[in-house]
Amino acid sequence: MVAVHPAYDEAFDGFAPDSVRGNPPARQKWAVEQLRLAARASANLGLKAHATFSGALAWPYVYPWPQRPPGLIDTAFNELSKRWRPILDAFDAAGVDLCFELHPGEDLHDRITFEVFLERVGGHKRCNILFDPSHFVLQQLDYLGFIDIYHTRIKMFHVKDAEFRPSGRQGVYGGYQPWISRAGRFRSLGDGQVDFRAIFSKLAQYDFEGWAVLEWECCVKSSEQGAKEGAPFIARHIIQTTERPFDDFAKSSSDTEANRSMLGLGNRKEGA
């Protein structure tokens, strides 16, 4: 609610207290204050990261017709960064990372939009990412390549599955169908197409220190079964990283003279 396009005012009023409903400026001010309080609460609880959405000023124009006028997206992202910069500073003062979940429906929904925003907030060190591969599957975005690029900014992780099965009738946009009938659907862990073995390997490779958080959404399976299956699923995928190279059979250490000898340099005298 930090950034709401007027087309969504009525829908977002449902997330706000009665005192600010029907009053977008008051609702935005209330939302900003809630985030400032959340920064302090996170610090008081000893938490290092906080999840959020960016909000959306430009989303109605993501696939535009008529075409967007020049400068529309620049104006939207300039305003978005203007609203978030003081909030990022508040989280910095609290020592907490602010993690944007890159999510369709939000202005920050993929790598490019995050980069545009990050540049406009001056590369703020508290501007970070909540990685949720399910939203990348629905966008057909390379979620493993994303980790390689942005692992230093990934501070939170939603373990959530999804599938994308397009047909001759529908694709990414889903044809206004309910979840059960869409080509792109969220699924319980293990029932979708997300390669979690590869994701956990990537995160282990880059020394991810955060939690692997089960987020359950599925249009087929019950939440009770999803929770019972999901927690053990995550436990099975957590990797205990090795303490030494697998091929270091002798646990050898660096030996300059031995290295020179192996290169045929061992008997040379200094300066010879």
What can you see in these coordinates?
The protein has a single domain (52-262), classed as Divalent-metal-dependent TIM barrel enzymes (TIM Barrel). The protein is 39% helix and 11% strand. It has helices at residues 9-13, 24-44, 72-94, 111-120, 133-139, 143-150, 196-205, 223-237, 256-262; strands spanning 49-52, 97-101, 127-131, 154-159, 161-164, 184-187, 212-214. The strands form two sheets. The chain has a five-stranded parallel beta sheet with strand order 1-2-3-4-7. Strands 5-6 form a two-stranded antiparallel sheet.
What's the short version?
The chain is an alpha/beta fold. The chain contains nine helices and seven strands, in the order ααβαβαβααβββαβαα.
Please provide the ordered H/E string of secondary-structure elements: HHEHEHEHHEEEHEHH
Number of domains: 1
**Count of extended strands:** 7
Mean pLDDT: 95
Strand percentage: 5-15%
Summary tags:
272 residues; alpha/beta; TIM Barrel; 5-stranded parallel beta sheet; 9 helices; 7 strands
Please describe the topology of this protein.
Elements: H1 9-13, H2 24-44, E1 49-52, H3 72-94, E2 97-101, H4 111-120, E3 127-131, H5 133-139, H6 143-150, E4 154-159, E5 161-164, E6 184-187, H7 196-205, E7 212-214, H8 223-237, H9 256-262
Parallel strand pairs: 1-2, 2-3, 3-4, 4-7
Antiparallel strand pairs: 5-6
